[in-house]
C-alpha cells in the first residue's frame, strides 16, 4: 500500500511539473476576452549562419559602406578602431588594418595604398557574421549566390589563379582556382563557397 501511494505521489508531481512548464495557448484579459498567447521564438529562428538578413544581424554591408567605411573614404577617420597588421599573398606583403567585431573576432580588413593616413582602396570581408542587403555572406554556395544576384561575371586572377565573381560593383572571391582568361561561370561547381566579399576591388 505504501508503494502505491508513493507511486501516486510521483505521478501527481510529474503532472504538476509538466503543466507548469507548458506555455499558455491563450490569454484572458480583464474583460474576459480570450486571445492567443504571444509566441516566444528565437529571433534567429530560420536564419542560418549563411542565409537571410535578420534584424539582429549586427554587421551589414549597405551601399558600399561597412561600419561607416567605404572605398574612396578616409582611412584616417577609422584607423584608431582598427588593428594594424600585414597580409601576405602571392603578390607580396601588404600593410592592412584588421576589422574586429564587438566580441573580438576578426570580420575582415581594410587596405590603403597610402597607409593609415590615406584613402580606403578596398574593404575585404572574411567573416560569415557580416551580411549584404541581398543576404550574401561568406560561406554561401555559388548556386545560392546566383539565385540571389542573378548572372555574375566570373574570372580568374593572373598571379594566383583565384576565382572571383562580380555583380553591381561588389566582388565575391570564390573558394576555388581557375585558369586566367578562360574560367567562366559555367566552370564553377554549384557547391563552391564564397570565401570573401570585397568592396572596391
Features of this protein?
globular, 201 residues, protein yfey like fold, 32% strand, single chain, three-stranded mixed beta sheet, alpha+beta
Q: The CATH topology is what? A: protein yfey like fold
Radius of gyration, CA atoms, in whole angstroms: 26 Å
Question: What order do the helices and strands follow?
Answer: HEEEEEEEEEHEEEE
How would a textbook summarize the main sheet?
8 strands, antiparallel
Main sheet: strand order: 5-6-7-8-13-12-11-10
Distance between the termini: 82 Å
Q: Structural class of the secondary structure composition? A: alpha+beta
Count of structural domains:
1
Structure, described:
InterPro entries: YfeY-like_sf. It is a single chain. The chain is an alpha+beta fold. It has a single domain (59-199), classed as Sandwich (protein yfey like fold), CATH 2.60.460. It contains 2 helices and 13 strands. The chain has helices spanning 2-21, 142-149, and strands at 26-28, 34-36, 59-62, 65-66, 83-89, 92-100, 106-111, 122-125, 130-132, 153-156, 162-167, 170-177, 194-199. An 8-stranded antiparallel β-sheet has the order 5-6-7-8-13-12-11-10, with helices on one face. The protein has a 3-stranded mixed β-sheet with strand order 4-3-9, with no helix packed on it. It has a two-stranded antiparallel sheet with strand order 1-2. A hairpin with a 2-residue loop joins strand 5 (83-89) and strand 6 (92-100). The N and C termini lie far apart (82 Å).
Amino acid at each position: 500500500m505504501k508503494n502505491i501511494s508513493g507511486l501516486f505521489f510521483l505521478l501527481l508531481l510529474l503532472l504538476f511539473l509538466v503543466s507548469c512548464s507548458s506555455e499558455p495557448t491563450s490569454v484572458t484579459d480583464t474583460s474576459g476576452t480570450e486571445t492567443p498567447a504571444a509566441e516566444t521564438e528565437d529571433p534567429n529562428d530560420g536564419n542560418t549562419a549563411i542565409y537571410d538578413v535578420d534584424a539582429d544581424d549586427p554587421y551589414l554591408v549597405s551601399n558600399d559602406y561597412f561600419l561607416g567605411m567605404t572605398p574612396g573614404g578616409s582611412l584616417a577617420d577609422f584607423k584608431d578602431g582598427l588593428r594594424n597588421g600585414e597580409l601576405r599573398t602571392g603578390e607580396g606583403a601588404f600593410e592592412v588594418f584588421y576589422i574586429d567585431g564587438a566580441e573580438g573576432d576578426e570580420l575582415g580588413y581594410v587596405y590603403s595604398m597610402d597607409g593609415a593616413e590615406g584613402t580606403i582602396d578596398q574593404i575585404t570581408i572574411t567573416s560569415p557574421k557580416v551580411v549584404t542587403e541581398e543576404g550574401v555572406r561568406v560561406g554561401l554556395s555559388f548556386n545560392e549566390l546566383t539565385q540571389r544576384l542573378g548572372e555574375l561575371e566570373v574570372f580568374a586572377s593572373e598571379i594566383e589563379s583565384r576565382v572571383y565573381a562580380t555583380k553591381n560593383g561588389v566582388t565575391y572571391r570564390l573558394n576555388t582556382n581557375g585558369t586566367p582568361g578562360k574560367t567562366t561561370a559555367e566552370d564553377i561547381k554549384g557547391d563552391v563557397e564564397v570565401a570573401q566579399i570585397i568592396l572596391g576591388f
